[in-house]
Hints:
Radius of gyration: 20 Å
Largest sheet: none
Number of domains: 1
Helix content: 55-70%
Strand content: under 5%
Amino acid sequence: MINDSTICSESTSDPAHSEDRVTVKLRVVNLIGVITPFAGVIVAIVLLWDIAFTWIDLLLLLGMYLITATGITIGYHRLFTHRSFKTPKAIEVMLSIMGSMAAEGPVLQWVAQHRMHHQHSDGDHDPHSPHGHGTGIRQSIKGMWHAHMGWFIYKQPRNLEKYVKDLRKQRVLVFTSKLFPVWVLAGLVLPAILGGLFTWSWTGALWGFIWGGLVRVFLVHHVTWSVNSVCHIWGTRPYNSHDESRNNPIVGVLALGEGWHNNHHAFPTSARHGLRWWQLDISYIIIYAMSKVGLASDLRIPSKERVLAKRVIKESN
């Protein structure tokens, strides 16, 4: 494993840690851009209930969401990117496949970009920061688009290979990463098969493919990307992290704990992102449960002393 300072240290760009980086225009643009797609899905579900959306489709949507989202949050992020815990090789392979079914890119590419993000968080070389694009309406839209999904479409940054030299030594993981298109296809076919079996009909298979496959991919992408955009614009910053990372409780719940983003940037290698008892972190709950049955070990959690040392001290007037 390569040094923590290379892959998951605090931002080296050290942007100004102040509210004026986040303009009202950027907040409004981000809010509209994030809420609108969610609202569209909810309206579609309500209008299509018992017509093209049933309890079976809901179970397939939620089940596939949980499987693929944890593949990202537990596998791609906390295990492969930050090495915040250890797990047997068989579980590593399973998590890499689950994360691949989320259709967010091969595991090695995803990890490289995220390590690059931590090294340059909200700086000039951050691959998906909403900041640094200007303060006008047009610039705010550009920043929100870039942070939320533009970075995913654009040409990949150069020199990503240097961020995954450690993972390149794991032949099984490299092989799994190369089979990314196969796992994406499997993530679409599986809910179709289950939908067909549960209803014993081709129509059930079609709706399983749509809701458990296509719509699920859309929602996982949208929630995951909200960590890049929303959690660098909306929320609180209780810890010194030298960037604009923020804790957002809504994203914290929807993204299975990833929305406690300021916590994460302050303590990148921690397996637990929800550091307070009330900060729901479903991904850590699963990791903790895995540790109790021998499927996870060496969980990295910051000490109380480290947590207190990084608390932002608010000056009294």
